[in-house]
Design goal:
Largest sheet of chain B: 4 strands, antiparallel
Oligomer: heterodimer
Strand content of chain A: 15-25%
Distance between the termini of chain B: 12 Å
Radius of gyration of chain A: 16 Å
Mean pLDDT of chain B: 90
Low-confidence stretches of chain A: none
CATH architecture of chain B: Orthogonal Bundle
Strand order of the largest sheet of chain A: 3-1-4-6-5
CATH class of chain A: Alpha Beta
Largest interface: A-B, 63 and 73 residues
Mean pLDDT of chain A: 89
Strand content of chain B: 5-15%
Number of domains of chain A: 1
Number of helices of chain A: 5
Number of strands of chain A: 7
Distance between the termini of chain A: 32 Å
Helix content of chain A: 25-40%
CATH class of chain B: Mainly Alpha
CATH superfamily of chain A: HybD-like
Number of helices of chain B: 15
Chain lengths: 172, 566
């Protein structure tokens, strides 16, 4: 389970925020990795190479209201070819899946849980709409794990999520 | 009639590079480079604890995470005059090395090789001929006839299925594509093998850094890797030997695949050697420190002006005033208030967005200058500085690469051909080979130091009252990176990052001097303005790193990836 996004860019922090929250609240079966990957671009590839199934949480551009969820499966993600790129930093999900496919591997099961952001610009802190979407993201993740036959168990009591970038600048 | 071509590949995702070129009579006459997103790292860091700055700066860019973390801790240590233990220096060096090997391999195979390699042409290759050709250049075991036949079959299957998958966007059949089918097939095979080595490098970073891509083992004052050769949880002998194995495997790939590939492809495109030089002022900072204070290094630093290798101005230490006093950033053509040129400690970031105006402001990137001159940074600067200072491994590998390429091109090639688009690729491969050698050395230095009984990893930083200023630099894969910090009463008062792609991709300055991207494009031939492959070749040769700050997936790819010819 991968959270993607830049934690210094407002609602783009959504993926890292969501997977850190899930990690604090649930115990996952052996073999499930929960990683805040940031914005790896093409370096996403090695993180997908050995996975049978992958769940990705990220901000997505789509029609709809801020905070709305959009779910995509592998064939929907790959419906349009990847854009030609100038640098390594543009999002690399399509390329990663296609490179691995060409190499004869990669995850067969892919679910991208996308959330429409309200604002993505330099700065720390998410909008209310994005925060409000975390519970829905959590529900989708849990449902997908059940579908894959590897349900998560709630931690009792839950840990506190490590959202270090939201600590106030004055250290209070 | 002149035509304006705009390469603005991602119009619905902010943060990207836009290149405008004016083409007349099939040749680029002028060029403008524009970064389409501003970064506000200094605004986020103001008022924070300097000890946590690196956690934030490594999130500036999801690909260059490690390099921003390293530069940040060095900047704070410099402000405090704090030395770090030898083990910490060596562990950081191994991280820097693993990251650089990874970055260069990914850059060549995944980001730029397909500018020169026609994947579709590989379908016409004879695998036996390709295998013979490869064996004449390298002992690599992955070049056998059956290996190459397998790659060709896989590619045929993709094309027969009506889709090229990962290769959809290439400029297949473009008149500027000139490699024989066998070389194209070899390159596709190595593209696939490079994916494996990308993973190995990642594993090495993860063992040392605790995690990749965002490492967790740094601290202002050292590292957090507890050294205990007998403990499961610490940095122990098993982990050290795993790292060595990974570095050895990457070394074999670099020496037997990456470097020979670049030599061969460069030689077969020898007609491109006159193109892409641009700015011939070069800047590299020293790296891989060998002492606790940063006064001795395994990779040299310095500045070269006007391509004159016989007059190198050295940069010799983490404290060197020659570097400290001569960096400034100009905003005359950038979307910030005013037109001042300021030292980074006095830098301001007050955005003022307007239209793209080639004669006025047209980029979010500032224009860094060194002694008032635009400077090219990156592997070419690294290799030329190494060559000029007589750095033995750089000279040896550069001479080897030039001789190998020269024997294929049937021409005598000297270091002067490195001032070019292809030279940047060759220099990157040379630098990678040098770093592989130093990987072995720094692994041994760490093990020897631990064997002496030294397990120190951290010196506690102490923040006095009042103001301290510091700068930390790192010679990152894409070139000289520097972080500049002003600390007041233990809190960050100002923070500026002058990143490699700012040096290279910055716009004109107040004296109308073009930046390196812009200057390098002038004179480039363009066969087909609708498909400006030649422009992409030169821009890709710099390994652009601009879209660092943003990442919003666009699943519906309709409007992205366009090249507009106006």
């Amino acid at each position: 389970m991968l959270g993607l996004g830049n934690v210094l860019m407002g609602d783009d922090a959504l993926g890292p925020y969501a997977v850190r929250t899930l990690h604090a609240r649930y115990e996952f079966p052996e073999g499930v990795s929960v990683i805040d990957l940031g914005t790896p671009g093409l370096d996403l590839t090695p993180h997908l190479a050995d996975a049978e199934a992958v769940i990705i949480v990220d901000a997505v551009r789509a029609q709809g209201k801020p905070g709305d969820l959009r779910l995509y499966r592998r064939d929907q993600i790959l419906r349009h070819p990847p854009p030609s790129r100038l640098g390594p930093h543009e999002p690399g999900l399509k390329e990663a899946l296609l490179s691995l496919e060409f190499a004869g591997g990669g995850p067969g099961q892919v679910l991208l849980i996308g959330v429409i952001p309200e604002w993505v610009r330099p700065g720390v802190g998410m909008s209310l709409a994005a925060r409000g979407a975390i519970a829905a993201v959590e529900a989708e993740v849990l449902a997908e794990l059940v579908r894959l036959g590897i349900p998560a168990a709630m931690r009792v009591p839950p840990d506190k999520p490590e959202i270090w970038w939201e600590t106030p600048a004055d250290g209070a | 009639m002149s035509k304006r071509i705009v390469i603005d590949p991602v119009t619905r995702i902010e943060g990207h590079l836009r290149i405008d070129v004016e083409v007349d009579d099939g040749v680029v006459r002028d060029a403008w480079s524009s970064g389409q997103m501003w970064r506000g790292i200094e605004l986020i860091l103001q008022g924070r604890d300097p000890r946590e700055a690196w956690l934030f700066t490594q999130r500036i860019c999801g690909v260059c995470t490690t390099v921003h973390a390293i530069a940040s801790v060095r900047a704070v240590e410099n402000a405090l005059g704090l030395e770090i233990p030898l083990n910490a220096q060596y562990i950081r060096n191994l991280l820097v090395i693993a990251h650089a090997l990874h970055d260069h391999i990914v850059h060549f195979y995944q980001l730029s090789a397909l500018d020169w390699v026609d994947v579709v042409s590989a379908l016409k290759a004879d695998p036996a001929k390709a295998s013979n050709l490869a064996e004449s250049l390298s002992p690599w075991p992955g070049n056998g006839r059956l290996d190459l036949q397998g790659v060709k079959d896989r590619l045929s299957g993709f094309v027969a299925g009506g889709q090229l998958g990962i290769f959809t966007n290439g400029y297949w059949g473009h008149p500027a594509m000139k490699l024989p089918p066998e070389v194209n097939l070899l390159a596709v095979a190595h593209y696939l093998q490079a994916l494996e080595y990308q993973r190995k490098a990642n594993q090495a970073v993860a063992i040392l850094g605790g995690k990749t891509p965002n490492i967790q083992n740094l601290a202002v004052g050292g590292v957090a890797n507890v050294i205990n050769l007998d403990s499961q949880d610490a940095l122990n002998m098993t982990k050290l030997f795993t790292i060595k194995d990974l570095l050895d495997e990457m070394t074999a790939f670099v020496q037997q695949v990456y470097l020979p590939d670049v030599c061969a492809i460069g030689a077969l495109y020898a007609e491109w050697l006159p193109y892409g030089a641009g700015v011939k002022n070069y800047l590299a900072v020293p790296d891989l420190p060998l002492d606790t204070r940063g006064t001795q290094f395994d990779l040299p630093g310095g500045a070269i002006f006007d391509g004159n290798l016989s007059d190198i101005k050295p940069i010799a230490s983490f404290q060197d005033p020659y570097f400290k006093e001569n960096v400034a950033e100009c905003v005359a053509h950038s979307w910030y208030e005013g037109d001042a040129t300021r030292h980074p400690w006095d830098g301001e970031t007050v955005p003022r967005h307007g239209d793209f105006d080639p004669s006025g402001k047209y980029s979010w990137v500032k224009s860094p200058r060194f002694q008032g001159r635009p400077m090219q940074v990156g592997p070419l600067a690294q290799v030329l500085v190494g060559y000029a200072t007589g750095h033995e491994p750089t000279r040896r590998w550069a001479d080897y690469a030039l001789t190998t390429a020269g024997s294929i091109a049937k021409a005598k090639l000297g270091p002067e051909v490195l001032h070019s688009t292809l030279g940047r690729h060759l220099a990157r491969a040379v630098r990678t080979a040098v770093i592989c050698e130093l990987a072995q050395k720094h692994w041994q230095l760490l093990v020897n130091n631990i064997a002496k009984g030294d397990t120190a990893i951290f010196n506690e930083p102490i923040f006095p009252k009042g103001e301290q200023k510091g700068f930390g630099f790192h010679e990152a894969p894409r070139g000289a990176l520097s972080h500049w910090i002003v600390i007041r009463d233990g809190r960050i008062a100002n923070y500026q990052a002058v990143v490699p792609s700012t040096w290279n991709a910055g716009p004109r300055d107040d004296r109308q001097q073009r930046g390196p991207y812009e200057a390098s494009l002038v004179g480039t031939p363009v066969a087909d303005p609708e498909r400006p492959l030649e422009v992409l070749r030169t821009i890709h040769s710099f390994d652009p790193c601009l879209a660092c700050a943003i990442h919003t997936l666009d699943v519906d790819g309709k409007e992205i990836g366009r090249v507009r010819a106006l």
